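Review form for a predicted model. The reviewer records the input and the model, then writes brief findings.
Reviewer: anonymous (R2)
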Amino acid sequence: MADAGAGRPVVYLFGSAAGVVAGIDGAVRAGLARGWDVAVGLTPAAREWLEGRVPELEELTGHPVKSAYRRPGQPDVLPPADAVLFAPATFHSVNSLALGLTSSWVVGYAAEAVGKGVPVLVMPCVNTALAAHPQFPRSVAALRAAGVHVLLGEGAFVPNEPGAAAPYPWDAALDAVARVLGAGEGEAG
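Model under review:
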């Protein structure tokens, strides 16, 4: 496994079950190339989709891929996060996070990170029909009001028509993380 830590910023990269989660390994590689210590978390459905690739993700990151809550008394297996990037975040995950419904570990961790002041960035992956559902804009507004960076709109993720595929803007998500990490370094210095 890769050498984890070593003073690098720790970025948790969380993914939920949208088809573009298949590209998460490229985002991991790009984060590692930026000098980050990347740890992957997946919703249970996303983990099921990527089950055969979990060993590769663990080898890349040097960390276990986490998708379930630890049992009481079990140690944390990941270093503390400096930033959390939830991408792709499905309609369900965005709404769950906004409403505080933490039935999956990645949503629960992201919700707790907000309360701890750890920067949380969420890049949805929804189509225009789901984005038009009345709860979605309320959830986006609630997350933004809580200080979550929701990467939605021009320059980030733009919803596509149902059934249409479009490239997922991983680079925009990673650039946003870099800006947040850079701001944190500037504040500390």
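Findings: The chain has eight helices and five strands.
Further findings: The radius of gyration is 16 Å.
Recommendation: see findings above.
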